[in-house]
Amino acid sequence: MAEYGQLKISLVESGSERPVPGASVEISSTGEPDQILERLMTDSSGQTETVELEAPPVEYSLEPSEEQPYSEYNLRINAPGYEPLTVSGAQIFSGQLALQNQGMLRLAQAQGEYRILAIGPHTLYGEYPPKIAENEIKDIQATGEVVLSRVVVPEFVVVHDGAPGDATATNHYVQYRDYIKNVASCEIYSTWPEATLRANILAIMSFTLNRVYTEWYRNRGYDFTITSSTAYDQKWIDGKTIYESINLVVDDIFNAYLSRPDVSQPILAQYCDGRRVTCPNQLSQWGSKSLGDDGLSAEEILQYYYGSDIYINTADMISGVPASWPGYTLTVGSSGEKVRQMQMQLNRIAEDYPAMPTIRADGIFGSATKNAVETFQRIFNLPVTGQVDFATWYKISQIYVGVSRIAELN
Fold this sequence. Notes:
The chain folds into 3 domains: 3-118, Immunoglobulins (Immunoglobulin-like, Sandwich); 140-317, no CATH class; 323-402, Muramoyl-pentapeptide Carboxypeptidase, domain 1 (Orthogonal Bundle). The chain contains 9 helices and 18 strands. The chain has helices spanning 140-143, 176-187, 194-213, 244-253, 285-293, 298-306, 337-352, 367-379, 390-409; strands at 3-13, 24-29, 32-41, 51-55, 71-78, 85-92, 97-104, 115-118, 152-153, 156-160, 171-175, 226-227, 242-243, 256-259, 271-272, 283-284, 311-314, 317-318. This is Peptidoglycan-binding protein.
């Protein structure tokens, strides 16, 4: 019997979080690009309905296999006033909700007649150069390099889409959380146990924050934060489809990283697939999947590979947010300035997302606020609880900043 995955497409104006409604999307298989399987339209939130698409058996992604574990589809997108776009090779896994979140360029910014984003093979299936081993802790003081004074989660990272010395490669400004979701969707399978996803995502985030903290590439004369080369860093693909299971984990722990006692910098947590490439004292991706199957927690998986003294730390500073999370979940009955700030941000978001109700910004979390929060969570693929936890607070902040910034630019 055929197996299926799901796909939902969300379109925003490039460089913002402003939705692109009324766009048409045609979906076809990469093997038969002229045979249209689905025709969709984006709603007032810039989103399509969720559709089911055929996918290979889920077992192909649960054990190392020569069989491709995902099906591939082309998405042809047209929106009035925006440059037409094709995403080629969107990857659909059985039983998984794939999220195609895409920025659209206004026609005034367009460089060509039709933009094409080609998504390459997953790193666990395709052939990519293995990581060049580095020390997990950089000897910063010995080199005299400039580093940050504390660990900061950046608002953006600059991704150099190629090897460090490739001057022809493009630099992309990518929101930090979106970068992590993209890399995780390139490096691990979303079908794996949640503890395995968390362990791998923590390694990915710690690796990234080490590059940020040490100013690794800028101290070498480059104008970017990190590269998309698997030999030097982690795989990142422009236009990559992400997955709900990965999306939820990243939103929940995006300020975390790995530490060792008496070491200020995030650990450069290197890893490999553990099948084609082995890496002693580093995380094995397939090995971590087996440990997750055995019931180990994310922290236990990380300690198995990096040693018993590794622990999960969190950054106090998150860049690009108007106000920090209060440290506890806001729910019906909560009140105060943090509630009022959240209400004001939701009202500003509602100006661009008309499906959201406007509410009274009175600092009192009542039933109307709960309803607005639930609508927000539904639109932005969060668990619909009506409560503002860590993930929801910072997602509200992200969307608020995105819609406010483009208004200021205009």
